[in-house]
Amino acid sequence: MKKTLLIAITFMFASTGIAQTATDFTINDCGGTSHHLFAELDAGKVIVIAFVDPCGSCIVPSGNAYGIVQSYASSYPGKVVFYLSDDVANSPCSTLNTWWTSTVGEPAVPTFSDPACVGSNYGALGMPKIVVLGGNNHHVFFNQNNGLDHANFTAQIDAALLVSNVAENATNNFQMYLFPNPVTGNSAVLKYNLNENTEVTVEVMNTIGEKVKSISYGKQAAGKNETALTLDALSDGLYFVKLTAGKNSQLLKFAVKH
């Protein structure tokens, strides 16, 4: 058993606060395909990496992370990808692949056993360590050892999608727009069309997915709607407004320029 087991017992970290920027690599996976991490992030992909021993305690969290990633396949085809990496790059590819397909019981995924892609790039090691990377600033949105917080993991994938500029074109189209855009004053008007009477929530987020404003409007009628957003507290820069109506949502990018 690897020495990292003692570290994993001692440390357990949740998302953020360990490494804020991803560590780049250009390496071949176990199948011989070349991967340049920063190029993939710059292309709008959200990268999930599970660093494993492999070990018994890695099975459930890694499998659950893979399942959640797969749930994005229809809404964001090819945008959220799952990689499996040996935590300290000392397990042969054959061992890693066999462990994944036979023990975890999931289809083959890109796997790595290379010193350029190891868990210690993101702080103390865990069994497993799971990270979510995204955006052209190569931000680390999620970093957890020894388990998986499903809700936070999903929320951070959503945040990474948002700043990777791919979420705008997904989900329902509410014919939504913000005027003016760029916002030059203290407020703007959000106009949208609802297909049915439903509960409506509007959130404003910055470019690393942090929520800076959230408003619940209760149930609104089907058809054309509009609401005034007070944005005087926002500094100049790029933001996203997210409209959630029932089970559907849409994102819109806007700028503030005073």
Describe this structure in words.
This protein folds into two domains: 164 residues, Glutaredoxin (3-Layer(aba) Sandwich); 86 residues, Macroglobulin (MG2) domain (Immunoglobulin-like, Sandwich), CATH 2.60.40. It contains five helices and 14 strands. The N terminus is likely disordered.
Question: How are the SSEs ordered, and which strands pair?
Answer:
Elements: H1 4-10, E1 26-28, E2 34-36, H2 37-42, E3 46-52, H3 59-70, E4 80-86, H4 93-104, E5 111-112, E6 129-134, E7 139-145, H5 150-163, E8 177-179, E9 187-194, E10 198-205, E11 211-220, E12 223-230, E13 237-245, E14 248-256
List keywords for this structure.
4-stranded antiparallel sheet, 258 residues, 2 domains, 20% helix, Glutaredoxin, alpha+beta, Immunoglobulin-like
Brief rundown of the structure:
This protein is of the alpha+beta class and 258 residues long. It is built from 5 helices and 14 strands.
